[in-house]
Design goal:
heterodimer; A: Aldehyde Ferredoxin Oxidoreductase,  A, domain 1; Aldehyde Ferredoxin Oxidoreductase Protein, subunit A, domain 3; six-stranded mixed sheet; B: 171 residues; globular
Chain lengths: 635, 171
Amino acid sequence: MVMPEMAGNGYAGRILRVDLTEGAARASTLPSSWIRDFLGGDGIAARTLFEEVPARTDPLSPKNRLIVATGPITGTLWPMSGRTVFVSKAALTGIWGESHVGGFLGAELKFAGYDMLVVSGRAEKPVYLSIQDDTVTVNDAAKLWGLKTHETTSRIKEMQNDPDVQVAAIGPAGENLVRFASVLVNHARAAGRTGMGAVMGSKNLKAIAVRGTGSVSVANHDGFVELAKAAHMRVRTNPQAREMHKWGTWILTAVKQQIGELPTRNHRTGVFDGWESLSGDYIRPRYTVSDRACFGCSLGCKKVNYVRDGPYAGTLEEGPEYEGLMAFGSSLGIADYPTTLKANQLCNRYGLDMISTGMTISFAFEAFEKGAIDREMTGGLDLKWGNSEVAIRLLEMIAKREGIGDMLAEGTRAAAKRIGRGSAKYAIHVKGLEVSGQDGRTHRSIGLSHATGARGADHLRSLVVVDQLGYQEVAARRWGKDKLPEIVDPYTEKYKAAAVVETENAYSIRDALIVCWYSVSWPPIFWMDDFAKVLPLVTGIDDFGRTAELTKIAERQIALKRLFNAREGITRKDDRLPERFTKEPMPDGPGKGQLVNLEPMLDDYYRLRGWDQETGLPTAETIRRLALGWTDRFT
Amino acid sequence: MVSLPSQLNVDYSKCTGCRICELACSAKKENLFQPSLARLRVIRYDDLGVDIPNVCGPCEEAPCVEVCPVYAMRRDPVSKMVYMDGDKCILCKSCVGACVNGVIRLDIQRMRIIKCDHCDGDPECAKACPTGAITYGPIAKTARVDRQSKIQRYLRETKRTAAFSAGDGDA
């Protein structure tokens, strides 16, 4: 084992590599050039994936990598720094895949002495990986295989006789290679999107258990602690953050209904009659029993909820987030909170991405309504809007790949292809990833985000909230007064590319650090200049104190992900939105009649990124400027 | 500075399990971020959604004082808080095993006993806690009674509805 050499700069300084085919583990030094060029998190993971997973690799083959990465501030006192990212070639989409998750896993990995874990190969039989500081073992998991995620987590804690072990586990869905299977940490925090659970399942890897007793130290301890404490006070006194502590993301339901962006009945419309029973005001007093937080978070948005009566009585579970309320609520026409909580619990236990699961079921509901799916295919089930029993039944069928669930487990794009009969119209996805709870028609910038996101229809890499919620002052400060009022008007395309590019850059640094999305949203508590203040104190690298340098690192990360996708054949022609957003005007609500005009936004986006207008790929000049010339060695 | 005899008081119902207290403690005492060397710990029960901060004291009985063979542990007769005299410690580790809260620890790197000293009356954990789950102040009997209620409520509810949930195929 290589001993930590760079202690004292935020990094553990080591990468842990585990080859499951050989059952061997080794640690290597985190190259300082990677820190300089990519900072951490998403960046160093992208660097690794690009080099080690060649074009056209089957995501479910042993050649794919499963990467768990942290950043320089993971495990420190910086607010909301308990995030971890799972990176892999995505099982659902076959392109760049990443999924961030909260909880306590990343910090524990740092305390164990690693910045990043890279898993390759495939175990012959089910195994689980145990990391206890320098002791890394690949253990038999025959007795864990088939268990749900919460059982797996509890069992591993029992076996290791340590309640502080952090476990990332897959459930039956991951074992069954459901294309949008998730990885669960801390029982209810999911690395949901793009199918990380299926990649783990394909490697016969049931769980990763991490326990670290070491430390993270920074370059300027006193200076950092002072700034971190002040940052915590900013979170604690921020009015939006206080609301978030109370309501979590449920606060969004009412906001989205108001602007006509609450996806309803498979994104057909943006207003939902039963929205009140899916809003925080309704849920919290009736169901919430406890507020919880991830590692180092003073905001604490997680809510534990308990259903006392009705068909789902006895359900005790965290969540769901707004996205879950949308996916199993408005999107299925179900105005019933307990259904969404039950669905969330089952998604967590089986290990399914709640967004993709809900949206895939929404697709099936609409295809059934339009006659593309009939009762013979569903095994007699009536896929009717608002039928919560059938929705829950389909969820379980997907997890177990039973009946029509086997086809739906491939995701909407593949399912529509199999079904045919014009059902592709109802498959609401971009590049194979089901569209999350936003709608470009009533929030134009997210239309561009969905179309250009590296992992597909993504609400987390470049979602601009400033226009969505109309923060004029923030917009003026960040993009200049001259761009008002258009830039805060969610119903126009003008200037939206500028907002998306700047936001995507800041989020890329967020994902390299790694900090939580909620520290940079509604309106941002922290932004680039805050990161530029804290990073030199953590790393001792003065260059990170310049926002221009951070912007360049961000552009490099974004371009690298784009080049990864380009290798898989992605070009401008794939940066599309479902026709629902570009051809079917919003039927009702405040945004009635709105449509997305994508092309002008794309032109602006590529121009601002330094990408070619025709191919939508980074130009030679951009590749040179971002020092990504090395990428042509890996094809 | 508080002048009344004071204790670390814990309100379980307010704890979110964020472990900022552990980070702040190790940052102040060790100049690094290392929960395993923190003088307190949060036990998280993800399956129940309950988080319980374990801090030093106040103990009705103080086993660490009773067990220490060299009188290195001293208990303030009024505040009931225990202080350790590191110079007297012979590293027998009896207190580590005896502590009912599990917050006296052995640092195997530097071979020493780690024990909360209440930051000389200005505890860092209480200052860092974002929700007021850990406070430092005059002895409050009510808080100690209260802090059991959340778990009791849970267990009662879970029991009450166990019959309902048994049939959903997912118990």
